[in-house]
Amino acid sequence: MTRQSTNPKHQRDKTLAAYLRISRDDNKDESNSITTQRKLLTDAAKKLGFTNVLFFIDDGITGTKRDRKDFNRMIAELEKGHIGAVMVKDLSRFARDHIRADLLIEEWFPERDIRFIALGDGLDTADGEDEFTPFKNLMNEWYARDISKKRKMTNIVKGNAGEPLSPPPYGYLKDPENPNKRWIVDEEAAAVVRRIFEMALDGKGADQIAGALTEDKVLSPHFYWRSKGIGRSGNAGDREPHYWGNSTVASILAKQEYCGDVVNFKTYSKSWKLKKRLPTAEENKAIFKDVHEPIIDRAVWEQIAAKRGKTRKRKAKDGEKNMFSGFLICADCGNNLWFHFNQKNPDIKYFNCSGYNTRKGECPTTHYIRADFLEQAILQEIRCLAKFASKHEAEFARLVEEHAQQTSHDQRQRKQKELAAMRTRDRDLDKLFSRIYEDNISGKIDDERFGRMSMQYTVEQKELAEKIHALATELDRQEVKAINASTFIANARKSTRAKRLSERMLNDLIERIEVHQSEKVDGEHRQKLNIYYHCIGAIEIPNTVPMPEVSMQTRRGVIVTYIPLRQTG
Questions:
Q1: Which stretch of DSSP H or E encloses residue 227?
Q2: DSSP codes of every residue in 498-538
Q3: Hey, what CATH class is 8-145 in?
Q4: Stretch (H or E) spanning 336
C-alpha cells in the first residue's frame, strides 16, 4: 500500500482549479454547457495526474465581465498558494477581455508558479510559452465585441418596432402564441399589483405597502417567479420568500407598462465593456401605448405618478404623518406648510409655513392652521362640489372643460415663453464666444482667461441645449387631455355622505390647497383656502349650493371661521 505524501508542495502540484463558464449567448451550444465542460476537465485532470480538483463555475455570466463571482473566488484561492494549476476548456471560457487574460496568463500566474491549461487551444504553460495566446485572447474579445454590436442593432430594430426588449414585469407573462411581441395578464400576480395601487391611492407609502404584503405572506416577485418555474435574473440572497422591500413596491408603482404600454430603451451603457446600466433621458425612450391588456387604469397610474413625484410626506417629531402633508402651499411665499403637534397637548396638530419657520423674513406670517379644522373645511367643500356636480351636471361639465382648456393653454404659453428665453440666451452665448475669441486673437485677453471663459460658456451652452431639446420635445408631444367629467363626478359622489375625510378622497380629487393667513374681520378670525382640484383647478361653486358654516376654537379665546370661495351671482 502506497502512502500519500504529506509534502505541501506535492499536494499543491496535485491540486487543480477547474474554471467553467457559460453565458446567455452560449445557452444553445451543447459543447459549451457546464455539464460538458465539467466532464471534459475532470477526464483531462485525471489523465494529467491531478488528484484534487476544485470547481469554480460562473453560470450565465459573460466573459467580458471582470466582476465574476466564482472567477474572483478562484483568484482569491490562488492567492493563498495551495493550488498549483488552472484549467479551462478553452481561452474563451477563461475571459473575453484580452488585457486581463494576457496579464494573468503571462505575468500573474508565472509569478506564483501556477500552471495554466486551456485544453481546446492546446495551451499548457508547463510546455513553455505560446506566442499565439495573446492573439487568441484578442480574437475572443473581438468576437464578444461583434456579438454585442449585433445584439445592439437587433435591439434597436426590435425596440423601435414596438417589441418589448425586457422580460414581462411582475403581473404579466409572455403570450405563448407570440412570446417575443406580446404579454398576457398573470391574474394571480396582477391581483397583487392592483392591491399595491389601491393601497397607494389610499395614501399608503411604499414602506407601509411592503410591510402589509410581508405580513400577509405574499410571495415576493423573485420567489413568485421561482415557484412558477419562471427563470429570471437576480439573486434573492438570504431574504425570506415573503419579504417585500419598499424599493420593490416603488418600482411597481413607477412602471408605465401596467397601463398596457411597452417602454423600450429605459437604460443604456456607455460602452459594450461596461455592464452598468444608466437611466435614459425621457425623450430617448420609445413608448408604444395600449399594446397589451392593462392591469391598472391609465388615469390611476398617472395620478399616483404625479403624487409620488411631489415632496415626500413630512412627519412630525413623533414620526406621525398627516394626510394633508404635501398638499398645503403657502398662498404668500409658495413654500410648503409643515406638519407639527403642540408640545403641551400632542392631540393638537397643525401646519404652518416653512418659509416662516426656517427662513425668517421670507414669509412674514405663520399661516397657522389646525389639521382638524382643515379636515372639516375640506370635507364640506368636497360635499358641496359633489352636490353641484350631481344637480347641475351639464354646467359642471362645461366648467370642467373650460378650466381644462385654460390650464392647458396657460401651461403651453408658459413653456413657450421659457423656451424662447432659453433660445435667446443660447444665441447670446454664441455672440459672447465670438467676441472673446476675437479679443483673444487681438490680444485683449490672454489665453488663460480665454480658456476659462470659453469653458464656462461651453458648459452653460451644453446644459441649455439639453434643456431646450427636452422642453421642445415636451411641447411637441403635449396633448390637450380630454377631461372625463363623469369620472370626476363619480369620485366626488363617493364623498357626498362621507362622515370623515380620507386620504383616498384627497388623492382622488385634490391637487393642492393654498392656505392664506387668517384675518380678523369685525372681531372674528376668518381663514381662506384656495382648493385646486385635479385637472379642473379652482372652481367657484354657485351660492345655490349651500355650505354649512365651519368654525372652531383653535386657540384659547380664538375662534376661526372658514369662509368658502363662492360665486356672487
A1: helix 221-227
A2: -SS--HHHHHHHEEEEEEPPPEEETTEEEE-EEEEETTTB-
A3: alpha beta
A4: none
Cα(298)–Cα(289) distance, integer angstroms: 10
DSSP code, position 365: S
Higher local confidence (pLDDT), 74 or 348:
74
Q: What is the pLDDT of residues 475-497, one digit of tens each?
A: 665 543 444 556 666 676 676 66
Q: Tell me, which fold does domain 172-308 have in CATH?
A: Hect, E3 ligase catalytic domain fold (3.90.1750)
What is the amino acid identity at position 22?
I
What residue ranges in 12-101 does DSSP mark as E strands? 15-22, 52-59, 85-88
Contact 509, 491 (CB under 8 A): yes
Q: Please provide the DSSP assignment of 433-470 as one string.
A: HHHHHHHHHHTSS-HHHHHHHHHHHHHHHHHHHHHHHH
CA distances from 362 to 335, 355, 366 (A): 10, 6, 11
Cell of 171: 403581473
User: Hey, where are the domains in the chain?
Assistant: 8-145, 172-308, 408-477
* Residue-averaged pLDDT of the chain: 80
CA separation for the pair 30, 481 (Å, rounded): 55
Contacts of 426 (CB under 8 A, 6+ apart): 461, 464, 465, 468
Question: Is 347 in a helix, a strand, or coil?
Answer: coil
Entry pTM: 0.51
- Residue 376 has a CB neighbour count (10 Å cut-off) of 17
Q: Which of 97-111, 514-528, 553-567 has the highest mean pLDDT?
A: 97-111
